[in-house]
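Note to self: user wants both folds in one dump. Writing first protein now.
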Amino acid sequence: MSHYRCAFLRLPQVKEMTCLSKSSIYRLMDAGDFPKQILLGARSVVWIRSDIEDWCSQKISAA
């Protein structure tokens, strides 16, 4: 049995990974400083896991 890591993250997972609030995430997205969400359905948005991981890595490297 393989362990599959979902390529998509929902907002609670993004908040946990980045330690950012919902408002901070959306403010950074509006400024072009955070990966954009993608629409999966009429009321379903997600972020791509690798985009969030890359963003976190860039922040660590810049520290």
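First done. Writing the second protein, which came from a different request thread.
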Amino acid sequence: MKNIKSIVIASVLGFSCISMVSCTKDLAEINKNPNSPEIVPTNLVFNGANRLLFDNTRDGWWMARMSMPWMQYSAQNNYVEEDKYQYRDVQTNNGWTFLYRIANNYKDIIEKCEDPELAKQMVNYGDIDNQIAISRIMLVYVFDNLVTHFGDIPYWSYGQRDNPNFQALNVEEHLAPVYASQEEIYADMLKELKEAAAQLNGNSGFVAGDNIYDGATASWKKFANSMRLRIANRIKKVYPAAAAEIQSAIAAGVFTSNADNAIHASGTTSVEGNPLWKTYFVGRRSDFWVNKSFMQLLKGETGNFGFDHRLYKIAAPKGLTFKQYDEVGYTDKTDMSQYPGMPYGLPTVEDYYTQESNVNYFSKDILNIKRGEVLMEYSEVAFILSEVNNWSQSEYIKGVRANLERLNVDPANIATYISKLPAANERNVLTQKYITLFFNPDEAWNEYRRTGYPDTQILLLPGETGTRPQNGSTYVFTPLQSGNVIAKDLPARVRYPVTQQTLNVDNWKKATADMGGDEIDKKLWFAK
């Protein structure tokens, strides 16, 4: 049996060589817990990995202090330096560690299902092929998160285990794994998604523990195809084979309605509740407020769309204390002055905005213990289809309608909004896609780096003048030094964890050299 303790230690420390990893057989025996089963059922591993994934990427650290404010969905009133790109290295260190730990859990499911003896037990938790295929899909989801944040990374592939460039998640053979190139990773992720979709059969997936599709393999197949469409569309400018991948994914069957949405369900306890809800109501943090830039777009003050009733689904009116918001509640207001938003990138912390009644909480729909976390939704697929079909008007309208319906906007208001939509073009489609991606800000960040949208019509970019809504006074949005640079645009990436500079130094140096430096202004492969 593999030394699971060694793997976990390596995961926490970034899959790098330290003396602690070389546990002896005797030490492994000492570390056994006689009251805990050594073979954890695969459905429990899957459930736990998914929960860990969203608790550590949609919480008050990874998402809420990087992509969510950078894409100006939110703004902070206390740690304004993070909004100005001076994030804390501990955020990326922890994110890297957790994402590799989660990937290792999906790999563990695959290994249990492939073991002839263990498979006899694991089949009780779902069809073996389907468990493997679903784990492959989630591995791509995790590695996509890593490669879009950092660039070249240590990578593992189910279908290319012997590839010398794919050394991650194999601490017994590769204590200091090489960093695979982004181009090679993307090509393999597309291959993995295609093969995983083909591997899925009509039997059940996980019989329990699947809080995304409840074991429905037909839905998992559509998700794999839709993710392949997303990734191929992202890299089409730099990857000649992407055009064929796009058409192949569409032909294989992508999302066609909100019924297909990939959403990880949240529970009703402080453990299983929505990660952002836990940030506010368990962690008792109230640092994050609806951004003025996003609020202006929804109010129709910027952009080309007029008033958007999604405003009420995303923001609460100002004037609320935490106690009022939590215990009394609120009613929506027609007076738009009640929705000023938090100005983004202020020079310093300002007392006025530290008073919670002067800014806007996220709505009760957002800060809801039971709100599920979106991996991908039909609206995004429709916008991609609009783009690949020369900015198709019909797909554009389908995308807008799907998101409005998913948020339970009143049908009459949906009809009015859609009747006034400007024609589909690059700006309008991608700006509507930006609104949809509020629930997936990492992907919104990917889209900005790929397309430059939303542009300065919506976002406050470095060097531009912002306005304080309470008195009309102005300030210049000036990013702070992050690493060794001051960014002139949104961050192009985040720096590698500082632990890699000691635990995997040679491979870190090579990856850094290949990317032109370990700084936030170094563009990733797909964005060049």
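Dump finished. Worth passing along: Residues 379 and 399 are 4 Å apart (CA to CA).
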